[in-house]
Amino acid sequence: MAGHIWDDPDKAVDGTEKVAAQTATDDFGILISSIASYFATVAKTLTNKTIDAASNVISGLTTSSFAANVVDTDVALTANSDTRIASQKAVKAYADARIAAQDAMVFKGVTDCSGNPNYPAADRGHTYRVSVAGKIGGASGVVVEAGDMFICLTDGTASGNQATVGAQWSIIQTNIDGAVTGPASSASGNIATFNGATGKVVQDGGAAISIDGTFAANSDAKVPTEKAVKTYVDARTLDTTAWTVTNPTVTASGGSFTTVNCSLRYKRLGKTAIFTATVTITDAGSATGNILFTLPFTPTTTHAGGGKEVAAVGLQCNWQTSTTQMIIAKYDNTSIIATGRTVVVTGTIETT
Questions:
Q1: How far is residue 325's CA from residue 302's CA, in Å, rounded to a whole number?
Q2: By CB distance 3.0 to 4.6 Å, which of 37, 132, 245, 326 could disulfide with 114?
Q3: How far apart, in whole angstroms, are the C-alpha atoms of residue 58 and residue 52?
Q4: Helix, strand or coil, per DSSP, at residue 53
Q5: 280 forms bridges with which residues in the sheet?
Q6: Distance separating alpha carbons of residues 106 and 122, to the nearest angstrom
Q7: Please, what are the averages of pLDDT over each run of 10 residues along the chain (352 residues)?
Q8: Alpha carbons 344 and 19: distance in angstroms, whole number
Q9: Which one, of 335, 340, 255, 350, lies nearest residue 295 by Cα?
Q10: Rg (Cα) of the chain, in Å, rounded?
């Protein structure tokens, strides 16, 4: 084969050059481009070679292209090896199993509760967020607002309403604008009052509702009901019970009566005594001076008032107290005693 042989290492080629070749019977030249095309179709085994990933593209790779155990499909990742690559499915299964085992909260989506839906089938930790207010757990379920969450508490919980599966769910209220908080403890029965001006904190008001119509406790720590107030007030201002009637013994400051009688009618309201005394003198006998009888209550001080003889002469008279004794005389403090006379005195006395 005629031609030149170059030993210049920097000689540029364009593929049209030929390489000398020889067989047992002939000499000839082969185009460099033909040689390149040939080698491109021949499978090659690379040993201890470095492939520059920036300058090469490796295509057609599948999991079967790797040696045994390089791609690990074990969902438990039992090998726990740095020389294996876990498949996507194995990683997902392993992660899901770990989350389920730890009962971690797993967000499952949002729920429109405007139609009062039942709880979904779920495992412990499954969490849903309310997108539209309504009820969760059916028509008799729990009222929820947008933003609230409901979390499953038990693995394998079936779908159902509040009555059937409600105990397996916990409702978390996140929309608490205007919510009111209270103390850690308080006295049973006491009224709650606001603490401060926020309208969101209550406290033990220190006072309890009382239904006692007698106000026996007389306490600033009791708040009476309407009925208790009415009962107490009515007992003092609308007393319909009968007056007490007694017949005290009548005497005179001088001499003695032959026949005399006294009807004393009175009503006590607390420390106030209202009275009317009617002294009927049938036979004055030797009695002179003042009419005397003992009151059934004790005045706090000396009291005085007026009266009238109503059966005979119509004379005015007066009365006064001395400790528990009632003393009655004519208007000019002379004696009003005489047979056939009836003396009536009335008044109000403060008692002890």
A1: 10
A2: 132
A3: 10
A4: coil
A5: 261, 342
A6: 11
A7: 56 68 72 75 77 79 79 89 89 81 81 97 94 96 94 95 96 78 86 87 90 92 92 77 95 98 95 97 98 98 97 95 98 97 98 96
A8: 164
A9: 350
A10: 58
Cα separation values, 36 from 30, 58, 220, Å: 11, 20, 111
What is the Cα–Cα distance from 223 to 228, expressed in whole angstroms? Answer: 10
Are 122 and 152 in contact, with CB atoms under 8 Å apart?
A: yes
> Which residues on neighbouring strands pair with residue 281, listed in sequence order?
260
Please give the structure tokens belonging to residue 331. Answer: 């208007």
What is the structure's pLDDT at 103?
64
In 10 A of CB 287, how many CB atoms?
24
**The one-letter amino acid at 335:** S
Query: How confident is the model at residue 7, as a pLDDT?
Result: 58
Q: Which amino acid is at 341?
A: R
User: How far is 4 from 33, CA to CA, in rounded Å?
Assistant: 18
Confidence (pLDDT) at 8: 58
